[in-house]
Each structure stands twice: as C-alpha cells, then as structure tokens.
C-alpha cells in the first residue's frame, strides 16, 4: 500500500495530464520539439498501464489524447513514411499517404479557424475602442468671397475707397490755420496737408523745423513745421 507521500497529485487539467504522460512515457510523448506520431490504439495501452494510477482518469486520457493529436506540432509531424511509436518509443507501422493527407487537411483547417478567431478579436477590440476619425475633428469653413451687390462680370462698379476713421475725421475746416511752434509738441494733434486733403496726425518727434508725425493709418512721415495746421 502506498503512503500519501508516494501518491501522485491528481491531474486537474489537460495540460497537467499531458505533462504527466510526458514524464511517464518520454519516448512517446513530448511537450516541445518535434512530436512523434502515436501508435493506433495507444489509448488502450495507456489505460492498461495506468489502471492502478489515480493521477488521471480514462476520461482525462481521452481528452488529453484528442488535444495532443490535434495540435499543430503533432499534425506537422504526421508525414508519409514516418513510423508510429508505442509507449516505450518502439517504432511500428509507417504513415501512409491517406493518413498524411488527412493530417495536412486538418492542420490547414485548424490554422484557418485560428486566423478567423484572431480577426474577430481584433474587430471586437476596435469596436470597443474606436479610433477618432476625421469627422470627429472640428471643421473650419472658409468664408466665401462675396461680390458687391448689383455687380456682374464685365460691369464696373464705382466705389469710393474707404478712408481710415482717423483720416475721415481729418476733414479740413473752411479755412486751415497754421499751427504755432509752441503748439507743436510730442503727442500733440495736428493736421498735415498732403495733396488736397489735410489729414489728422500725432506728433512723434520735433527737431527744429523738422517734425515727425504719425497718421491715423500708422504711416510715419517726416515733414516741415510750416506744413502743419491746427487740428
């Protein structure tokens, strides 16, 4: 009678069963590397060898063998001319063409199913976390260039140029009065006569008879004091 310490721990998953079979029958089963095609009827041999072993049940053995023989590693090893092995690694009959073709077809179908599952998982992940698209970005509309009302191609529209507000306010009085020298100070307002229309300006600098002024449009002009008038 075996003691508790001599008893094997009962396998609880297919992975545990395969690991146990690999440790008990290393010449037949393997977890890595190239697999060996199994002898037909290997289940009966396993059931007989492990009849008194409580580590695995017959149901677990069937499940483990189904998983092992449907793995890509096992199917890739099932080729024409390769000999099958028993539990002790002794070679027996070789795989024929029909068996090899069946293994290849099973392998291709298995890989196709795996690829479809990967695609489905990727699609599901994208659905849960959609990436922002161009629609989500704020749009910027360009303002259309509006044509003046009443205008058409080939028709000229007489429009007076709009003067800056400061220049509009600089309409001359009935009679311009020259500005006295003592009133020409930095920051002071004066009228500068350019052409026919005097314009309002601000004195920036005074240097004897030369005065630098800035128009309402921002233009800076250097002129003589006698060209300035009272604002």
Automatic annotation (TrEMBL):
Domain of life where this protein originates: Bacteria
HAMAP family according to UniProt: ProQ
Localization, UniProt: Cytoplasm
PANTHER family referenced in this protein's UniProt entry, alphabetically: RNA CHAPERONE PROQ
Entry GO MF terms: RNA strand annealing activity; RNA strand-exchange activity
One GO term of the biological process aspect: post-transcriptional regulation of gene expression
Domain ProQ/FinO residue range list: 9-123
Gene3D superfamilies: ProQ/FinO domain
InterPro entries, per database record: ProQ, ProQ/FinO, ProQ/FinO_sf, ProQ_C
Annotated source species: Rheinheimera lutimaris
Residue segments, region Disordered: 119-174
GO cellular component, one term: cytosol
Keyword Cytoplasm: yes
Membership in a protein family: Belongs to the ProQ family.
Pfam family, one: ProQ_C
Function: RNA chaperone with significant RNA binding, RNA strand exchange and RNA duplexing activities.
Listed name of the protein: RNA chaperone ProQ
Keyword Aminoacyl-tRNA synthetase on entry: no
Keywords attached to this entry: Chaperone, Cytoplasm, RNA-binding
Chain's gene name: proQ
């Amino acid at each position: 009678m075996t003691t508790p310490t001599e008893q094997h721990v009962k396998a609880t998953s297919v992975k545990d069963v395969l690991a146990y079979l690999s440790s008990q029958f290393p010449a037949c089963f393997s977890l890595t590397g190239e697999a060996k095609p199994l002898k037909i009827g290997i289940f009966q041999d396993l059931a007989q060898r492990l009849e008194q072993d409580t580590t695995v049940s017959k149901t677990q053995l069937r499940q483990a063998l189904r998983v092992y023989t449907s793995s890509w590693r096992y199917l890739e090893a099932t080729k024409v001319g390769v000999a099958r092995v028993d539990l002790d690694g002794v070679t027996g009959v070789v795989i024929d063409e029909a068996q090899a073709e069946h293994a290849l077809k099973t392998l291709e179908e298995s890989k196709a199913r795996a690829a479809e599952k990967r695609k489905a998982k990727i699609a599901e992940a994208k659905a849960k976390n959609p990436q922002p698209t161009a629609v989500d970005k704020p749009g910027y509309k360009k303002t259309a260039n509006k044509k003046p009302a009443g205008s058409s191609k080939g028709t000229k529209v007489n429009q007076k140029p709009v003067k800056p507000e400061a220049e509009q306010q600089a309409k001359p009085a009935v009679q311009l009065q020259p500005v006295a020298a003592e009133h020409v100070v930095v920051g002071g307002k004066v009228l500068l006569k350019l052409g026919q229309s005097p314009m309002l300006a601000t004195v920036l600098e005074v240097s004897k008879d030369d005065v630098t002024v800035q128009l309402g449009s921002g233009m800076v002009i250097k002129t003589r004091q006698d060209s300035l008038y009272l604002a």
